[in-house]
């Protein structure tokens, strides 16, 4: 209704509600105000800020947030070692893009009040279908390096794989995470005696799963590393020095830590391509794999499978698992996209050996998609290294927490939670759209 207000010395004017709002005149009835109580105020006031990057890491909403934090904390040379791939980096981009083409087909009206994520791999139960894969040069990302990653994996209840190119010994990893399921990744080197010694060290450290990487007969052309002149330990050019000085937290960690070195291949050439081309054996065949099988008493996985016929040959040898992987796109550019190849490999050998996926995994939804397409679990590498660069052990833990929460939410929204949890994921709930 129109409202009348007094103006001047007693005159009044009637203002319709519409015109009152246009003129900026509040024509609505006035509501009473009161002073807020303290217990009501404190629920909306911010808490004391956490110092350093801890708050930013804790507030990261996804792995991409942690990637951006890592870019800000680490010098460009270090960040590019993790973020880069071979040549034109097409293989890496395609691996990530494939997950972007995943289309879920959710079921509705299902009881998803519970959504367990635990699965069994290689005869042992883990908290979710995730394996922290092997990465080299890890202490360059953060001074805590492999120890921090192993501790985070132990708390999360998932395996951690120490690399032959790791910067911490197997014994030190085992001491850092004595209750964790620690694996070891092997590159076969020219000196077979050194390979046997490496296997002995891993076995003495309690590692009972061996992951043999077979897609590195020679070094891939990682052009970002070439342009930075990356060596071990890092030999900083003037441009790299300026980058490091703009990253004081990383620089302080670097200069106050033990010198960076490869803990297993000590005495190797100091450049990354040189280590691969001088030490690694490009003549390795499936017969050498049979020799490794005879020398290793634990379970054996082969990582780097990119063809169905190779998968069949390896299954015939009796390996315990295969990892469909193109080395994160860091070896041969334009190589097969792991997620696209995965269903073919599962169909060919999945009844004889366990099949894992590596490459492009950045979220719990990605994990759900890979499991639905037949993977027993997913290896992740870059994702947890972003967390490590961004915030050390807390950053790795944040990545694992995010993956778990995303996996739970995805399975619930897909209608495959309940008692079976991720065990209910199958090809009926997912498909790959055409590229």
Shape: globular
How many whole angstroms does the radius of gyration measure?
27 Å
Count of alpha/pi helices: 19
List the strand order in the largest sheet. Answer: 6-13-12-11-10-9-8-7
How confident is the prediction overall: mean pLDDT?
A: 88
Give a quick account of the main beta sheet: strands, pairing sense, barrel closure: 8 strands, parallel
**Head-to-tail CA distance between termini:** 60 Å
Which stretches are poorly predicted, pLDDT < 50 over at least 5 residues? none
| Strand coverage percent | 5-15%
Class based on secondary structure composition and strand pairing: alpha/beta
Helicity range: 40-55%
Count the E strands: 14
Outline the structure in words.
About 45% of the residues lie in helices and about 15% in strands. With about 425 residues, the chain is of the alpha/beta class. Strands 6-13-12-11-10-9-8-7 form an 8-stranded parallel beta sheet. A two-stranded antiparallel ribbon has the order 1-2. The chain has a two-stranded antiparallel sheet with strand order 3-14. Strand 12 (about 355-360), helix 18 (about 365-370) and strand 13 (about 380) form a beta-alpha-beta unit. The longest helix is centred in the last third of the chain and has 33 residues, at about 380-415. It is globular and about 90 Å long. About 45% of the residues are buried. The model has no long low-confidence stretch (mean pLDDT about 90).
